[in-house]
Amino acid sequence: MRRLSRLATSLGLLATSAVAFAGPALDGVTQKQPTNWHAIIMFVIFVTLTMGITYWAASRTKSTADFYTAGGGITGFQNGLAIAGDYMSAATLLGLSAMVYTQGYDGYIYMLAFFAGWPIILFLMAERLRNLGRFTFADITSFRLNQGKVRTMAAISSLTVVCFYLLAQMVGAGQLIKLLFGLDYNVAIFAVGLLMMIYVIFGGMVATTWVQIIKACMLLLGGTLVMLLAVSQFGFSYQNLLEKATAAHKLGPKLMYPGSLLADPVTAISLGLGLMFGTAGLPHILMRFFTVSNAKEARKSVLYASGFVAYFFNVIFLMGLCGIIIVGKNPDFFEGGKVGGKLIGGGNMVAMHLAKAVGGNMLLGFLAAVAFATILAVVSGLALAGASAISHDIYARVIMKGKASEAVEIKVSRVATICLGLVAIVLGILFEKQNIAFMVGLAFGVAAAANFPVLILSMYWKGLTTKGALWGGYGGLVSAVLFVLFSKPVWVDVIGKKAALFPYTQPALFAMPIAFLLAFIFSKIDGSDAGKKEIEAFEDQYVRAQTGYGSAATGKH
Amino acid sequence: MYERIRGNPKFDTLVARRGKFAWTLTWTVLALFYGFFMLVAFAPKSLGEPVAQGSMLTVGVLIEFSLFVLFWVLTAVYVRRANSEFDALTREIIEDARKGEK
């Protein structure tokens, strides 16, 4: 039973992290380590390079389209790398390699679950997103519905997702940086917050995308290098590696059997739904589809992104297996030199120790710098998505009803970025000692239950009306928040009540049907004239979704 | 313009073909993915068996690796067909509608 609850926690943590999110699955408050100069020097090189790019990007960021979507000028290949960068976080590297190290095959099963959403996003969503959207996904949901009301709702749920996600990232980042670089927690939080603001305010989407691309390349390179060096110790033989790993691991031959993953099918299915459809409802991921010029490039983005992700997951699998022998049998990596005891720095440090074992301090420093870069890239994407919900959806469309000038709109989004950055820094410092794992669950739950149902219905179901969208969206938002609030991680662990009111930790399986059902019922009973017009307007939207005629970037060509 | 696009029989062809193709692939991925999860849930032992006597490669790892490759190949198949056949058809439809405008 204890194993199960631990697994559920790690599920939540991974949900937190493995997708897009740099929030590393760290076990609570970490120990400050000696200052790691290799890592700091390499990180300074990364910051210098990205600052140079931001300076260049600033000169190219003139219109709102430049700011929000890099003017639609990102190619499919570049965007594919950037999406892969959003998807493969520090936590993917650290959390999943640690999972293979402790649970063996179970870790590999997880990775498939994280990967399987991408083909579905390609087949059903990528093209329509590109054809209908411009800056934010609210452009799509409010395409034929009441602009003011539906946009306000989309902006509220986007900001909910972004804020919780950002906070989880900041706290995770502070802990990770303290551990890897030996910097003070508060210094780390300020560094992340300030760099994020600089990238977004001056460079907009152009800089954010390039930061993401550089980081993705560093991550792929670093991971591949560690994997090759590690596997070379086994003569590049899977047979040899596995013989030694099963002999060394306390699970023995059970290492390659499925363990406790589906011991609780409800949690597993709910998690699977949340991961698959939460990803398809995260504002900063959806925004990436608007940075390419047309549906063709949008499809290519997913092709490249899923290729990199699939490749990297297999690299991580091999890293975890090698870690079992190279790290797991070396007393240098255990506290007090006791093999099989507690790993120095916590259970998630397997990949880092492995890098040190096969490549010395240089490689360790490189990988640590990659982890820091990853966090920066992800928080920048989040901040930009949050700022665009405020400036584009709320300010320009709802308050100014589309009459705002571009210059003022960009100013508003810059101010919004500063506000988000300050909020992230202050809350990050306040929440230093809190368990923040539930926040990621919440962000995913809201994305899957509030954003995704309204988005997919608005694209696929003719009958959706404003009334239905509002009930579905707010219903999904409220129920996801309540399910998380009443679940054990918050109700018992944070608030301190005795028993959880809601027995599962993952809300998606329950909150998503509520959202779909409410949207369906209230669209059906909506007999208003406005509702009828909205249903009629689906026809034109449908043609545009299918052909891309009239979409934002095709107008440029 | 949208009226004319909708009136073009090629538009119905495009929608029908692409819809059928996308949904076939979607159901393939979902069936394989959840089928694999059913194996994990109900026949975990079979996944831990070696593929051949004395081999360290287990059935589970082989299946999963194949799924990674297959899912990616399916995305490639979709992108290839969509970027050639469907995009060409889309261009024709828009051209036809533009001609009708004059």
Number of domains of chain B: 1
Mean pLDDT of chain A: 85
Rg from Cα of chain A: 23 Å
Residue ranges of chain B: pLDDT <50 for 5 or more in a row?
A: none
Give a count of the beta strands of chain B, DSSP E runs of length 2 or more. Answer: 0
Mean pLDDT of chain B: 89
Query: In total, how many domains does the architecture of chain A comprise?
Result: 1
CATH fold assignment of chain A: Sodium/glucose cotransporter
How much is the radius of gyration of chain B in Å?
A: 22 Å
Category by helix and strand content of chain A: mainly alpha
Please report the total strand number of chain A as a whole number: 0
Name the helicity range of chain B. Answer: over 70%
**Mind telling me the CATH superfamily name of chain A?**
Sodium/glucose cotransporter
Number of helices of chain A: 21
Q: Brief overview, please?
A:
The complex is a heterodimer of chains A (557) and B (102). Chain A has helices spanning 2-17, 37-60, 64-69, 76-87, 90-103, 105-115, 117-132, 138-141, 147-181, 185-232, 238-248, 265-279, 283-288, 295-326, 350-399, 406-430, 437-460, 466-485, 488-492, 508-524, 529-547.
